[in-house]
Amino acid sequence: MENIxxxxxxxxxxxxxxxxxxxxxxxxxxxxxxxxxxxxxxxxVEVCYNGYVIRIKCGVSVEVPEPIYMLLKHSGKLSVR
Length: 81
Description:
Helix content: 25-40%
Structural class: alpha+beta
Largest sheet: 3 strands, antiparallel
Radius of gyration: 15 Å
Order of helices and strands: HEEEEHE
Strand order of the largest sheet: 4-1-5
Number of helices: 2
Shape: globular
Distance between the termini: 34 Å
Number of strands: 5
Strand content: 25-35%
């Protein structure tokens, strides 16, 4: 990753860094999760991991990489299946 404190990054550099982060997430073990549907709440949850945003639909079982699983687990939003 490039040091963002020492210089301004171009949009292309930011996009490339996010793409690399997404690719690195594919190396982690996967967990199947299901976020509960809660009346009056959004139907999806966005999780941001080092600039990479993942939108997870509630009420559907999906596989997520371990860092995302841990974020969901510690947030209290997780229902494991």
